[in-house]
Amino acid sequence: MTGDGPARSPVGNHLRRLRFEHGEMTQDELARAAGITRQTIIALEAQRYAPSLELAFRLARVFNQPINDVFFWSEPT
């Protein structure tokens, strides 16, 4: 065991920035709007979880943004 913590997902996102650009939306408010739990939002923002395609579209719809303005691919290092 190396102690490096959980692996980061190569799927990055702009959820935190978008929340603050949309009236300082809380994680709980975003979770409710997308029909998921706050814990899922926490994991997504920390890049510990890659969303399903359906969830990615639902989150993009909450912000009225194209999916590629919310999520992006980040090459693992």
Can you list the strand order of the major beta sheet? 1-2
The mean pLDDT is 92
The helix content, as a percent range, equals: 40-55%
Q: List the uncertain runs.
A: none
Question: SSE order in H/E notation?
Answer: EHHHHHE
- CA radius of gyration is 13 Å
Report how far the terminal alpha carbons are from each other: 19 Å
How many strands, what sense, and barrel or not for the largest sheet?
2 strands, antiparallel
Identify the CATH class: Mainly Alpha
Q: CATH homologous superfamily, by name?
A: lambda repressor-like DNA-binding domains
How many domains in all?
1
- CATH architecture descriptor text: Orthogonal Bundle
CATH fold-level topology: 434 Repressor (Amino-terminal Domain)
Number of strand elements: 2
Number of helices: 5
Q: Structural class given helices, strands, pairing?
A: mainly alpha
What is the molecular shape? globular
Please report which band the strand proportion falls in: under 5%, 5-15%, 15-25%, 25-35%, 35-45% or over 45%.
5-15%
Description of the molecule:
- The chain is mostly helical and 77 residues long.
- 48% of the residues lie in helices and 8% in strands.
- The protein is built from five helices and two strands.
- The longest helix is centred in the C-terminal third of the chain and has 10 residues.
- The protein is globular and about 35 Å long.
